[in-house]
Amino acid sequence: MMKLRVNWVEQFLGDGWKVHPAGGATGEAYIAQQGEQTVFLKRNSSPFLAVLSAEGIVPKLLWTKRLENGDVVTAQKLIQGRELKAYEMKESRVAALLSKIHGSSELLDMFKRIGNEPLTPIVIVENLRRQLQLFHIEDETIEAGMKYLFDALEVVKHEHYVVCHCDINHNNWMLDEEDQLYLIDWDGATVSDPALDLGLLLYSYIPEHEWAAWLKQYGVKLDSSLHERMHWYVVSQSISVLLWHYGRQQYEEVEQLKMYIQSLLND
Fold first, then answer.
1. What residues contact residue 200 under an 8 Å CB cut-off, 6+ apart?
2. From 24, 225, 228, 246, which residue has the greatest number of CB atoms within 10 Å?
3. How far, in Å, CA of 168 to CA of 210, rounded?
């Protein structure tokens, strides 16, 4: 199957190109080389790629082509860089780039123009409820987590929505040859409370006693409202990831997440 995909890309590009898969969950990303030119190709990547490229958030977009079947192929500059290490997520440049993303009116306008409705707390709770019903899951820890999410809905209401990346894992932060920082893989991005991204990043990488200093670099003050909202989104995302693993029968990961959720609820 992978060979067929590579052949399709080679036919699309024409003679002289060497293509190999770039990995990733979708299997629709490739690295193509012709002489001195090397590009990163992706089919049906984020429609916001042009804005992300123009703002220097992702590597430069070189061209976009629409296929006869309606699919869109994009080519980006392939950076010869590396992923950030987990400990590097503390750095001020990470806070600065995330602040730039959350503060981008151009990016937000683009999301709104294509009908992207904000991912609000009530929408998140309803989505989780539907998934739990689908899987017929009855578990004390998950039920306690859902009760916390529902009881705190009024507390975590927030009117300021931004474009959130939603997967700020250190593997998605890339440094190029010139030490330029990028945040890649925008397929899961949405409009939501910035506390969604902030909570996932801080809880995953930054010791709690350093949160205030990191957030100062980002440009906000750590107050009780932000703290509560970040906590809420981390609990909701943890339940969501647990259900993802449950659907794939990865029960060891499910049990680990249940313990993590329990620790969050005991905070």
1. 166, 168, 233, 234, 237
2. 246
3. 18
The last residue of a domain, from among 78, 96, 118 = 78
* Counts of helices then strands in the chain (DSSP H, E): 10, 10
Distance in angstroms (rounded) separating the CA atoms of residues 157 and 120: 8
pLDDT digit string (tens) for 108-132? 998 888 877 899 999 999 999 999 9
Task: Give the SS3 label for residue 195.
Answer: helix
pTM of the model: 0.87
Are 58 and 125 members of one domain? no
Residues 9 and 74 in one domain: yes
Active site residue 167: yes
Count of C-beta atoms within a 10 Å radius of residue 78:
18
> Which structure tokens are listed for 165?
């990346």
* Residue 243, helix vs strand vs coil: helix
What is the rounded distance in angstroms from the CA atom of residue 175 to the CA atom of residue 163? Answer: 22
Residue among 139, 167, 176, 187 flagged as catalytic: 167
How far, in Å, CA of 233 to CA of 51, rounded? 27
Find out whether 119 and 190 touch, Cβ atoms under 8 Å.
yes
For residues 148 and 39, membership in a common domain is answered with no
- Same domain for 152 and 97, yes or no, is yes
Continuous segment of H or E residues that includes residue 19? strand 18-21
Together in a domain, 222 and 203: yes
Reported as a single tens digit per residue, the pLDDT across 54-93 is: 999 998 888 887 777 777 788 888 878 899 999 999 999 9
CA atoms of 47 and 30, how far apart (whole Å): 18
